[in-house]
Amino acid sequence: MANIKKGDLVEVIAGATQERGGDRGKQGKVIEVLRDKERVVVEGVNFVTKHVRVGQTQRGSKTGGIEQHEAPIHVSNVALVDPKTKKPTRVGFRNEEVEKDGVKKTVRVRYAKKSGEKL
Question: In whole angstroms, what is the distance from residue 13 CA to residue 78 CA?
Answer without folding.
Answer: 5
